[in-house]
């Protein structure tokens, strides 16, 4: 089950945010060894100061086990500010229908009931949740900087990345920038691939006006 | 507690400069029944001054900065070595060992700063900043309040730090563009005439990663050649 946290609800969901920042610490600092900033056992960067939308994913025992951060392309993005080399001289148009995702993280699920095409249900749910969010905001695309390993995972989940530039070797991986289609078709493909039967993303009914 | 955090986030997002951040955080400290807060961002080079944003009495903060107390402060020494948030003050936390450390604590006490809770902020190079909530008395209610709200305090500290960085206080700004530590290192070695492979050997990274950092820096600066990027870097040093 997935949940949207927008900035007007940061206070209400402070516990969930704490869990999310701790998940990000475990994944990016401990597991992947990235050069990230940490406060105690939480990971943070300056893009968190732009009041992004966070999607969090809960496990069957209600723990926060997955997350992703979303920012509109009409404002600062990691692709423009942190990794412009991956655009190969191209540019990202500021477009209200295009958002950027970053800090995509998933705990290694030791309770995984099984995998489909080698991916856990949690992975499919996180992707479906992103597409549902996109559809709810009338987006056409989500752009992102990721690595070739995640690119393969996206392809297996039937949500392929449209490359914006060639991959570049970076550390022990290859980074690549691309766009992910937001459409009912792509949602159907991911749902079918992951055998998801219903919507996965929840948002407070009492949203601020 | 959650409303306090929400209020702070709203204030920080609307804030346009460091003074706005300071006021937002001061209100938060008051709402938490704490006397004061201090955000200290450690300088990247040893001789530069730290950045201090706080509502401590300004007589204390200017004295602290003028005397370079960040080099002596046992709280900062602890921040440099440990990543976990910690209490300090009478009976807990880093204790003063030398005369000068004890003098520092006594001076702080005269300004109403006797105990506190500090959240260190690190990157893979070490400590980069610390957020402290301080009080003039170690009431048990102070300790209880901190412990009960430790999570949200950590969130508050992190949010403040992220906003402070975002508002552009960084000594790696060249031509209005922020370069990472690695990008600056690679440019410096390129300026020394090192090839990507040689720079990789020096920094312990592959030549592909060096090329990535150089190309990324050039893309950020909007220049085509490494020579131009190095020239921009040299020019900004003369101007700062």
In short:
The complex is a heterodimer of chains A (about 210) and B (about 240). Chain A is α+β, with helices and mostly antiparallel strands and about 210 residues long.
Report what the structure shows:
The complex is a heterodimer of chains A (209) and B (240). Chain A has 209 residues and is α+β, with helices and mostly antiparallel strands. Chain A is built from 5 helices and 11 strands; from the N terminus they run βαββββαβαβαβββαβ. Chain A has helices at 14-31, 78-81, 121-136, 148-156, 184-194, and strands at 2-5, 37-39, 42-44, 53-58, 64-72, 98-106, 141-147, 161-163, 168-170, 173-181, 201-202. By secondary structure, chain B is an alpha+beta fold. Chain B has 2 domains: 2-166, 2-Layer Sandwich (Beta-Lactamase), CATH 3.30.450; 173-239, Arc Repressor Mutant, subunit A (Orthogonal Bundle), CATH 1.10.10. In chain B, the strands form 2 sheets. Chain B has a 5-stranded antiparallel sheet with strand order 2-1-5-4-3, with helices on both faces. The chains are: A alpha+beta (209), B alpha+beta (240). Chains A and B meet through helix 1, strand 2 and strand 9 of A and helix 1, strand 4, helix 7 and helix 10 of B. Strand 2 (37-39) of chain A pairs antiparallel with strand 4 of chain B.
Largest sheet of chain B: 5 strands, antiparallel
Q: Estimate the strand proportion of chain B.
A: 15-25%
Rough shape of chain A? Answer: globular
Structural class of chain B: alpha+beta
Helix/strand-derived class of chain A?
A: alpha+beta
CATH architecture of chain A: 3-Layer(aba) Sandwich
CATH level-4 homologous superfamily of the largest domain in chain B: Transcription factor LuxR-like, autoinducer-binding domain
CATH superfamily of chain A: Gcn5-related N-acetyltransferase (GNAT)
Low-confidence stretches of chain B: none
The number of distinct β-strands of chain B equals 7
- CATH topology label of the largest domain in chain B: Beta-Lactamase
Kindly report the greatest chain-chain contact and the residue count on each side: A-B, 37 and 48 residues
Quaternary organization: heterodimer
